[in-house]
Design brief:
The chain is built from nine helices and five strands, in the order αααααααββαβαββ. The protein has 225 residues and is an alpha+beta fold. A hairpin with a 5-residue loop joins strand 1 and strand 2. The radius of gyration is 20 Å and the shape is elongated.
Length: 225
């Protein structure tokens, strides 16, 4: 079943145009992107299956094109490409926001941006947001990758990249593939090591954000910085 085969008052497009996007549920908005379902499953049911499988909108935004292959009805590349394109647009919109204002004007945007970048990775990734003197985003770099449980982070490399970007401050970030966004003692020790190393070149560590699918934790908000 495709959208035009649904009753007029159940068609997401008509409902959106008449009442605005806030009137639509998550499955209805997703159905607008998918447009068609498959034999035995209409487009709204397919949209709901996607949400159920990946843990809602937040989880879906953390998926990859390979992840989407698991869903019957998304075997072709067109729909997967469209969904991945929406994810990339979300990333770019958040990056643009962080480049135009100080990161502490929008702390939730920082967490959301980092979740979109890192939360779905199957291995641990350590990244750094390099900020200018006004704490606006200059660049994000993924500097180190590890196994599912640990990664090796070299303070010298972080300092060199901060100098390269002429950064005045940084936000550190890494993901926990286990799904628990809680700092370990090793995370706390690493943060202090990097803080001390960067202080030698007058670069402040503003935060260390730990992300997992559907969750993000600020060590600064926890008082661990």
């Amino acid at each position: 079943m495709i959208l035009k085969d649904l009753p007029p008052d159940a068609r997401p497009r008509e409902k959106l145009l008449a009442r605005g996007p806030a009137a639509l549920g998550d499955a209805e908005l997703l159905a607008l992107l998918l447009r068609t379902g498959m034999a035995g499953k209409n487009v709204l049911a397919l949209a709901q299956e996607l949400l159920d499988t990946f843990g809602g909108i937040a989880g879906l935004l953390n998926t990859s094109a390979e992840d989407l292959k698991r869903i019957k009805g998304l075997g072709g590349p067109a729909k997967r490409a469209e969904l991945v394109a929406v994810l990339e647009l979300a990333r770019r919109a958040l990056a643009q926001q962080l480049k135009s204002r100080t990161v502490f004007d929008s702390p939730d945007a920082v967490k959301n941006y980092l979740q979109l970048q890192l939360a779905a990775r199957p291995h641990e990734v350590f990244a750094v947001l390099f900020l200018d003197a006004q704490h606006r985003l200059l660049a994000m770099e993924e500097l180190f990758r590890g196994t599912l449980t640990q990664t090796s982070v070299y303070p010298r490399e972080v300092v060199l990249r901060a100098l390269h970007h002429q950064a005045g401050a940084v936000v550190l970030a890494h993901n926990h593939p286990s799904g628990v966004a809680e700092p370990s003692r090793a995370d706390e020790a690493l943060t202090q090591t990097l803080k001390a190393a960067l202080a030698l070149v007058d670069v402040r560590v503003l935060d260390h954000v730990i992300v997992a699918p559907g969750a993000a934790l600020s060590m600064a908000e926890r008082g661990l910085l």
